[in-house]
Every structure is written in structure tokens, then in C-alpha cells.
## 1
Amino acid sequence: MGTHTAHTTEPSTPGAHHERDLLRLATAGSVDDGKSTLIGRLLYDTKSVLADQLAAVERASQARGGDAVDLALLTDGLRAEREQGITIDVAYRYFSTATRAFVLADTPGHVQYTRNMVTGASTAELAIVLVDARHGVVQQTRRHAALAALLRVPHVVLAVNKMDLVDYSQEAFTAIAEEFSAYAAQLGVTAVRAIPVSALAGDNVVERSTRMPWHAGPTLLEHLEQVPVHRDAATEPFRFPVQYVIRPRTAEHPDYRGYAGRITSGSVRVGDEVATVPGGVRSRVAGIDTFDGPLAQAHAPRSVTLRLEDDVDVARGDTLVATHPATTVGTDLAGTVCWLAQAPGAPGARVLVRTGTRTVRGVLQEVGPLLDVDTLRLEPVSGPLALNAIARVRLHLSEPVLLDEFAEHRRSGTFLLIDPLDGATLAAGMVGRSPLAGSVEVPGRCRAQ
């Protein structure tokens, strides 16, 4: 199976992966920690590379004067990446084993590409944070751990790479693992698995290393195959953003009215009472239709068409929700954003705010405080938000929207800020209080005048 490169937009998962458990994971690490080589090793050793791709990499390796195949080239598909030997964009890779299929978001290591890390990890269930065994935990390591915590990634793997360059020292590995685990605990991250690897030599990536007999834990691939796939989406309260209203008006279906979309969380049965957001009108589910036929029950993340018993006013942008527990709806949105645009974010700016399938007009009323991901302090800001900044914001919206707290609803508690003039995405945000457990707020903020 081949690799695929995409610029921050994840393509659809190949059909062959639908039959297995699917794990979404993201990789992060400082520049030159060996992340591309590690991913190349995973693809190569799991035989997830087409013959022509491998041949192209072999030719590129020889052109560079190397004696061995440079596995990093399996992932560095962009010309600029190959020329500089770095990864500068988010790319999605697909591979699978007999046990599980994987969608891997390969994110860059540079400080100036923090936004790409946010994009790649936003849907991940596991994050692999790479550390060079010679350098240990560095500033960028802490930054990526903080972002994983901020985005509520359920599982974190610390891959201590280049163990061959420290003579496979158990003491070096233990010191790094203990330092990282202590820092992660400050962030509220307790599910950390540390694994010593050498991506270049293949130690403990797919095959167990004979040079580190002191490591009794799993290899990286074994852990990826065994880690529990996050299933909270099916047990959370029901959320169904309506994407399209289906009204065929044909002789066969003259009165059919269905609401098509994807269940983002929870489950729904025929006969369940649901409510519309923001309208608050209640009805019951009369039917659940799919291309393969009707269902008695459906759960996240399935795409379905729902029919209701009553002819209620539901349109694209509305959300069907469970009537219990109660939902929060309002026009004042407070949350945390990662600023994604070159254009600065200043108080008073008029934006479009997208939550689910709903887009409304809004005003950026307050900006700040700003999160310092190195110290985990929320510091006052003295001006507009710059590219890659992570900060608290407050917006006033022209219409009410569903306000699910991100800390409790990872899938429906998100929003985007969009430039109303050109449609460019300005920021990605999380509704509610800061989800970073260890952050401490320093008073001060920037208000619209």
C-alpha cells in the first residue's frame, strides 16, 4: 500500500481499512529527531510501500551518495522537504497490519509550524512524541506534549530515538522517560508509554531489539496494535449536525423529508426523543436510513439520514441533540484558539464562526491571555494574535449556536474562525475553559475598544 501526501486536509480512508479497527495517530518531535525515518521504518517493515515507490527512494538515496536506503524519503514527498531534509507540512500516511489499520498524521517539528501540529493532532487518538536520546527532553518536546494535552489526545507514546548513538544505554533512556513523564503529569497526561527505539537500525520499531534486552515492554508497532481505540464517541451525548435536507418530491417519495449528516458523538435509536439546536423544538426519530437500508440504531461516526415524526423546521446548520442532558446554547462564545493565519487577530475584528455545519457572523471582542506552552502560563497580550499563537478569546455571535465544552465534548466542542472577505481560515478553537490542566492564568487581557 502506498503513502499519500496531503496539505492539512485529510483524504478519505481507503476502503480496505474499513474492515479493521482504525487508529488515528499523529507524530511530533523536534527537527532532526528522526521522525521521518521512524515513519519510513514503520511503512517499510510493515510492507506498506509499493515496489515503484521503494525503487524511487532507492534511486534518490543513491543520488545523495548514500549506501543504504534513506527511509526518511518514504515520507518526505514534497520537493522542498527532500531538498532541505525536513518536514514542513502535514501529510497523512496509511498503513495496516492483520490486527489494525492506521491513519498517521505526520506533523512538522519547527516552532513556526505549531499550527500544523494542532491540525494533525486534532482528531488523533494517540500521539507519538519523538526525542533524540543524545539531547533528551528539549523545548520543542515540551511544546508538543502541551499541544497533545491541549487537544485532549487520549494516549501519548514517548519514542526515545537514536538509542544506537548512546550505546543502547538503559540509564539514558530511563532518565529521559522519567523527565518526560513528570512534565506530562503536570499537563494532566497520565497515559504515557515510553519505548526506546532506533529508527535507522530498526530496533523496537516493528521488530524487537536484541541489543536492548532490558526493555521488557512492547515494540512501537505492538503498542499501536494493542492500545485501546478511543470509543467515547459512541457513549457521549447524541450530536448530529445536519448537512443536507433531502426532499426528493418524486412519485415514489412525494412526502419524504430526511436530514442527512454524520453522527459526531453518541447514538440514536428509532423512537428516541431529540431536540433541534438552536430552535429547541422536540420530536422523535421515525426512521434511520442508509444506502444499505434502514437501521434500528446508529452511533458515531456513522453517516445516516434521520426522519422525524413531526414536520419541524430543520435546515443545514442545525444540530439534532439528545434531550438529556441539557445542552448549552448562546451568542457569547469563550474559548481557546490556535491562530492559523498570517493576518493578525485583533479585538474588534469581524469574523465568521463555524460550529459543526453552522456558520454565523461574529465579533472578536477580547483577545488574551496568551498561552506560553513552555511555562504553561497564561500571559497577557499587548497586541493582536500572531501566527501560531495559542490564546483565550471571547466572541459575540449574531445568532445562537451550540456551546459544548471541548473538555467534555472533543468532537462537537470545536469551532473555526473564518475571514468573511476571502473565506480563509483564521483560527481553530476549542469552546470553554482552557483544557490544559497545568495552565496558570496571569491577569490581563486585550479588549476591543
Note: Confidence is low (pLDDT under 50) at residues 1-18, 77-88, 442-449.
## 2
Amino acid sequence: MNITEAITIVTKLAEGTPVSEERVAAFRLWTLTEATDAELQELARAHEAVLMDMQEIPVYDNREIVNNIYSRLTAYYQEETTALAAVTGQDDNIRKIRGRNYWWAAAASLLLLGGGTAVWMIRTQRPQPAVIVQNTMLTPGSNKAVLTLANGQQIILDNAEKGTIAESGGVSVIKADSGAIAYSGSGDNIQYHTLSTPKGGQFQLTLPDGSHVWLNAASSIRYPTAFRGAERNVELTGEGYFEIAPNAAQPFTVKTGKLDVHVLGTGFNIMAYADENAVRTTLVSGSVKVAAGATTTILTPGTQASLPAGASNFSISKPDLDEVLAWKNGQFRFSRTNIRQIMRQVSRWYDVEISYEGNVDNIEFQGILSRKVTAQALLETIAATGEVHFRITGNHISVIPGAEK
């Protein structure tokens, strides 16, 4: 078997298409004994892509949806390798695999055992549902925003037709075929516009200078209809990802209220939600200077500056960039993330209120989930770990420690 055949098989399995027992056995043997680390990583990426396209069922990344599932996969994998060694007589070679990072082989084995997903298998063992729903279906967010012009006029962008949607300050505001908005012209009458996304919304914008902005849910950006003078300044609330058009003669600054981010030409993410415990600036490429009062720091690619509430100094770290940018790429990514932080993301994306019934301070999860699924599907996947369960009433979600009894 080769990687192409393996991807075909795992795609069929993930989609629920029948695969012969003979091919399943060959696939299992290949993942456990023959596949290289690089091939397993390629297989995992292909599998993740299939799962991320599924919208009607809970989806997860086999590597590490949550610590609980990962530990189950590891235990099962050890059982699999022991059994395979006994059958094939390749005891030494099989046992060597345990020392290698074959996380996907473990997941694939469990996947094949049930012909479905690890989450599905765990769910079938529970007599009671982990998500109690009362007459509601919470759909995921989508591209929607409101553009507020200088005169106070508001344009609901998700309902606006393609083409020119407004004339302001001598420039035209255009809704492109992609759904994003952009500016055309160079009027001298500079005015300020504000683009706002509600809870359950996201949107893309091309600023008058050609810079690109992605806005996450419950966010806003205020900017001029033309950039004049020595600087380009915008104001951000919530979260946004920026790709700045280079112009060394006219530096670009993003103001969040708590700090300023000064850039020349770069890609970076700013998370400045009022309900988070810190404002975080993460640099993907280029160079930025982050300033909070008299305190400044210069970031290099791959680093993050965090300014906790009430603090005067930045904390510098090297985060997982995939996790930081997951929202922009249509994903939730968790890396030992506390359930409260996860539920803040859920609240913004599904436009729901959250409450807690019990102590959840030490409950953390790790893994990848799609932002395309319903809130119920997302929560069912998390609850499959047995660490927590949920009750949904209208647009309110109650988070309860432990498994449903």
C-alpha cells in the first residue's frame, strides 16, 4: 500500500463509505508497520481536511481532540501493537513503533475498529446524551457585518448587492464578488467608517491603502476613507488579522485602547476582546512594535506579546500560530485550553450566553474542531470525553462538570 491508496481509504472511512475488510486490514498493517512519519503526517492532513468539510456531524482531529480521547487512543494502540506482534511474529519491529510519534496510527486503528470516528464510538457507550437540547438549533456564524458611514447611515453588508453600495468622502464603497468590501477612488474629503461584526459574524475588508483585514465575531474596526498625512491609523475592538500594504513613508498603526501596534508591512493578529484576560498581539511575518504607554516591545515572526489586564509590562511567548489563526481558517484549535476560554469563543461564534454549574477551573481540552458545525454538534464532541456536559435552552448554554448521569 502507498500513501495515495491510504488517503483514499481513510477518506472513504471518514465519509462513511464502505471499505472491504481486506483493504481495512492492509491499511491497518501499513499504518502500524510500514508508513513513515512523513506519510502519516500527510495522511493526517488529508483526514483533517475531509472532517473539516463535514457540517452535519461532530468533527475532530484524530491527533488530539481532547486529552481524554488521546489517552484512550494511546492505550488502544498499545493493545493493537501487542496483538499484531503476536500474530505476525514481528515482535521487535512492532514494539519499536511505540517509541515513535505514531499518534495517527493509534487513531486510525480506533477509527477502523468501529468504521466511524472515535467520538462516535465513545458516544455509543453512554446511555444518556451529553448535550441536553430544549427546542433549539444553534447554527454557526457566517459572513455578516454592518458598515456605518460618517453620516450615521448603516448598511447591512450580508444583505447588500454586489457592486457599489455607497459613495462617501469622494470614494466608492464596493462589495466584491467574494462578499468582502473595498474602496475605490482617492477623495480629499476624508471621512471615517466603522465596520462591525455581531456575535455569530465575521467579515473581510480591503482598506483604502490596499491592506487586508479579517474581522472575527463581535469585533469592529474604525478607519478613514483615505489615508493622508504621515501615518495610517485604524482602531480595533475584538479580534482581527491584518496584512498591511507596505509603505515605509507612511507607517501603519492599530489602536486597541489598551495598546498600539506600529507596523511597516507585515501580517499579524490582534486579540483585544474586553472579556479576555489579556490583549494579545501575534506576529506572523515582518516586524511590529507594540506599545502600551511608555512600555514598548518589538516582535519577531512567530512571537506574541500579551498585556494582562492591569499589567504594565508585556509577556513574550512563542504560541502555536495555527491555534492563533484558527478562527480565520474556519477552525477552533485548543492546546490545553480551559473550558471557560473555549466557551467564550463559543459564545461569540454562536451568539449564545454561557453559565456554569460547578467548578470547571481545571478542565482543559486539546484538539481541532470545525467552525462550520452547529453548537450542538461541537458540544457533543467535547462532551464525548466525559469531562463535561451541557444543557442548551434557547440561546443559553449551561456547562456542567463531569459526564451526564
Note: DSSP finds ten helices and 25 strands in the chain.
